[in-house]
C-alpha cells in the first residue's frame, strides 16, 4: 500500500483470516520521507567549523532573512525578559505550573551512586555526573512549542548541567515570546538567535562567541536532524524523533467523542502522524470513526488531521481486550499508549513496549504533553522496543571505580594474567604480573 | 602535526609558555581514519533485507571462504559444547571467575521503578523493562576476545534480555574455542557463524532462520561499524568505539616499570591507541619513558605498541598533581584513568570526566579489562564527557505512567488547555476540555 495515498482509516478484525498480513503492513508503513540533505549539511558544518561566527552569521542572515553582526547573535537578558514579560499572565501561570510538575517528576529520576567492598577486598563503585554543557535546539516559526522547551530543558537542569545553551532561529527577526518565557522558566543560561545546520555546528564545534557544548538535544527539521547525526561522536545527541503516534486501547464504556478527540490530538500534529484504536466492540469502533468525522468538521487543523487519519489511521477490533490487546500493543510499541479501560493498571502490567502509558478514561494523552510531569519527548516508530523517553539520565554519565589492595590483586590478578595470555595481550598480563611479584 | 608520523612521545611541561597550544594539539589529534565503506555496506544491507538467508550465506561463503548452506549457519549445541570443552580447564576457571565478578557488579546497576500519587491526586510512575532480543557482534580471527564476549553478554542477561543472539564470523571455518566457552558461560542463547555487514543486516531485519533483534552491540571493523550506523533506528545500537586510551596520573613514589607497562597495555592494542602520563616529577617521567623502551625490547606486540607510543603517547609534567591534574584529566576525558597516587579516592572526587577510574598503585587498568567487575566497554575519544560505559541500562528501557482521576484532571487540565491553545493545537486542548465538562 502506498503510504502517501489517503485511503480512509483501515478497520481490521483480529479474527479475520487476512489480519496478520494487514497488521504487518500497518507496522511496516513508511511514515517519513525526509529528503537527503546530507551533502548540503556537511558543507555547512565544515564551513562553520572553519570560519566560526562569520559562517554562522552569513547562513543566518541568508536563511532567516536577517542582517545580524556576530555580536548580535546572542540574545541579551533585556531582550529575553521583555519578550517573556509580554506574555499573557495566564499563560505564564500555566507555564509555571507545567514546569513545576515536570521538575518534580524528573527529580525522581536522579540515579544513585554505589560503592562497596566485596569478598575479595576489591573496592567497587559507580558514580554519576552531569554533562557540563548541553545545547537545546528549538525550531522557529509555527513549530516552536514552549512545552517542548520545558521538556528538554528541565531534565538537563535537574541533572545538574552547568551551562544550558538554547538556539532558536528567528526568521525575519521575529522572536516567540512564549518560547522566551519557557526558556526563562526552565533556567536556560544562554540563548542564540540561530537555527538550522549552522546552529548545530556552532554548538558542536564552538565559535568565537559560542563555546562548544557536550550534548545536543531537541527537535528540528531534516537539516537539523542530519546535522545532529553528523556531529554525533564529537558531541552526544538525543534520539532523532519521527512523526508522533498514539495507540488507544478502549472498551465500549467510553464516550466515542472523547476517544476520537484523543486520536485526532496526534493526527493534528503532522500528516505523517499515526493514530490507532484497539477495541473489543465493532460498534464502538464505528462510533469513534463517526465522531472523528464530526470533530473534523470544526477542528482548525482538520486538513492535517484528516490526511494523517485517512493515510495512517487504523481501527482494530479484537475479541477480548485483556487477552488480545497486549501482544498487538507490544508489536506496535507505541510512543503514546492510552488505556481507556476499567482497570488500566492491570492492563499496563501486561504490556512491555510503550514510551508512555496514560491510565484510565480521564487521562487524555494531551495532559501528558503539557502538565502531567513525565517527559513528552518519547521514542517513535517502534523504537520503544529499545529506547526511552528523554530524562535526566540523558544529561548524565557514569564512571566506574575499581580499587585493589595488594591482597585483593593477589586474589583476582592471576585470572586476569591467564585471560590476557589467552588473548595474546602480554603487556596486559605483565602490568598485573609485575605487581604480583 | 601529522598524526601518522611517529615522532616519539611528546613531553609537555605545564609551566611552559607553549603548553596550552601543545596540549590542545594532543586533544585534537586524529587517531582514526576509517575508510568510507558506506556504499558497499548499504548494498549488502539492502541485499540481506531483500533475499534473507540466501544473501547472508553467499556473502559469508565469499568473504569467509566457506561453503555453507543456510541450514548450517546456526551453530548446534554440540558444536558449541565440543569447542568450549576443548579449552584448557585453567582458562575455564579464569573465565568463570571473571563472569561471576562481572555479573555481581552489573547486578548493582539494576534500576528501580517508582510510583507515587502527588498532591493533585495524579498517579505517576516509571517502569523499566528489558529489551526482548539483543544481538552481540563478535569479531572473528585475532580480534576475537573472550573477555569482550563476557562484557557485552552479561549485562544483557542481567538486564533480563530474553533472547541473546551472537554472530561471529569463522573465516576458513575456524571456530575460536575460547569465544564459545565465554558465550556458554555468559548464557548466550543462539550463535550464528556469520560476520560483517551481512551479519548486522541479518540481526536487524531478520531472515528465514534468524529472527530479528531489537538492539545490536559489540565491536567490529569499519564495515560492521558502518552497518550498525545504517540500521540504527530500526534497532538500537551501542556506541561506536574508537581506539583505546589510558591516562595515568602517577607521583614519583611509583615503580616506573609498573607505570610504563600500564601505558603499554593500551598501546599494544592498536597503533591508533593513546597512552598519556601526568606526573609532578620530570625525573620520574623520564624514568617511565626509559622503562617503556626497556619493555619494548621484549614485548611480543612491541611493533604495534611502539608505533602507538611514538605517534600518540605523551608525558605531561605539572607542578602539583592535586591542583593541576584534575582540569587536564577532565579535558582529556579518558576512557581509562589510573590514579597511582597515595590518596586516589580524594583525587578521583576532583575529576568529573572519565569512563573508568582505577584507584591506587595496585590497580593496573588491565585487571579491569578482565576480572574487576565493571565493564571494559567504555567511551573513547573524549566521549566520556557525555556517555557511559556499557551496562544493564543499555539493555533496558523506561516507560512513564500517568493516571488522572476526574478530580485530578480538574486541577491540572486547565493549564494543559491554556498551553495547547497557545501552541495552536486545538485537538490537544479539546481532548482535555471535553473531559472537564
UniProtKB/TrEMBL annotation, chains A, B:
Example of a GO biological process term: L-histidine biosynthetic process
Species whose genome carries this gene: Novispirillum itersonii
Taxonomic lineage: Bacteria, Pseudomonadati, Pseudomonadota, Alphaproteobacteria, Rhodospirillales
Catalytic residues as annotated in Swiss-Prot or TrEMBL: 335-336
The record's free-text note on cofactor binding: Binds 1 zinc ion per subunit.
Keyword set includes Protein transport: no
Name this protein carries in UniProt: Histidinol dehydrogenase
GO cellular component labels: cytosol
Cofactor: Zn(2+)
Residues that hold Zn(2+) according to the record: 266, 269, 369, 428
Amino acid at each position: 500500500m502506498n503510504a502517501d495515498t489517503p485511503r480512509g482509516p483501515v478497520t481490521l478484525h483480529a479474527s479475520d483470516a487476512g489480519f496478520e498480513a494487514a497488521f504487518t503492513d500497518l507496522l511496516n508503513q513508511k511514515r517519513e520521507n525526509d529528503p537527503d540533505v546530507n551533502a548540503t549539511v556537511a558543507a555547512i558544518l565544515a564551513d562553520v567549523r572553519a570560519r566560526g561566527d562569520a559562517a554562522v552569521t552569513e547562513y543566518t542572515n541568508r536563511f532567516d532573512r536577517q542582517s545580524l553582526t556576530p555580536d548580535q547573535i546572542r540574545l541579551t537578558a533585556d531582550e529575553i525578559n521583555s519578550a517573556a514579560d509580554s506574555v499573557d499572565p495566564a499563560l505564564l501561570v500555566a507555564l509555571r505550573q507545567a514546569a513545576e510538575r515536570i521538575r518534580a517528576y524528573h527529580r525522581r529520576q536522579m540515579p544513585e551512586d554505589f560503592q562497596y567492598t566485596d569478598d575479595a577486598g576489591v573496592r567497587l563503585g559507580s558514580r554519576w555526573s552531569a554533562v557540563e554543557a548541553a545545547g537545546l535546539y528549538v525550531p522557529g516559526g509555527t513549530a516552536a512549542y514552549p512545552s517542548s522547551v520545558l521538556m528538554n530543558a528541565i531534565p538537563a537542569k535537574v541533572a545538574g548541567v552547568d551551562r544550558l545553551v538554547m538556539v532558536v532561529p528567528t526568521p525575519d527577526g521575529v522572536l516567540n515570546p512564549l518560547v522566551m518565557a519557557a526558556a526563562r522558566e526552565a533556567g536556560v543560561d544562554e540563548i542564540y538567535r540561530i537555527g538550522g545546520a549552522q546552529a548545530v555546528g556552532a554548538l558542536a564545534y564552538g565559535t568565537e562567541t559560542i563555546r562548544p557544548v557536550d550534548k545536543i538535544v531537541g527537535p528540528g527539521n531534516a537539516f537539523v536532524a542530519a546535522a545532529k547525526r553528523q556531529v554525533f561522536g564529537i558531541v552526544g545527541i538525543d534520539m532523532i524523533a519521527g512523526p508522533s503516534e498514539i495507540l488507544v486501547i478502549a472498551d465500549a464504556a467510553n464516550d466515542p467523542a472523547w476517544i476520537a478527540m484523543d486520536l485526532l490530538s496526534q493526527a493534528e500534529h503532522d500528516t505523517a502522524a499515526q493514530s490507532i484504536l484497539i477495541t473489543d466492540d465493532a460498534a464502538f469502533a464505528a462510533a469513534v470513526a463517526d465522531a472523528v468525522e464530526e470533530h473534523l468538521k470544526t477542528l482548525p487543523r482538520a486538513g492535517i488531521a484528516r490526511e494523517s487519519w485517512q493515510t495512517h489511521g487504523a481501527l482494530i477490533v479484537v475479541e477480548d481486550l485483556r487477552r488480545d490487546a497486549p501482544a498487538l500493543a507490544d508489536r506496535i510499541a507505541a510512543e503514546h499508549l492510552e488505556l481507556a479501560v476499567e482497570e488500566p493498571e492491570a492492563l499496563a502490567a501486561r504490556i512491555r513496549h510503550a514510551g508512555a502509558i496514560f491510565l484510565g478514561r480521564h487521562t487524555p494523552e494531551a495532559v501528558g504533553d503539557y502538565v502531567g510531569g513525565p517527559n513528552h519527548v518519547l521514542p517513535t516508530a517502534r523504537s520503544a522496543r529499545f529506547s526511552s523517553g528523554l530524562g535526566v539520565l540523558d544529561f548524565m554519565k557514569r564512571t566506574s571505580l575499581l580499587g585493589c589492595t595488594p591482597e585483593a590483586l593477589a586474589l583476582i590478578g592471576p585470572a586476569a594474567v591467564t585471560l590476557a595470555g589467552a588473548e595474546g595481550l602480554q603487556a596486559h598480563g605483565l602490568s598485573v604480573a609485575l605487581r604480583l611479584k
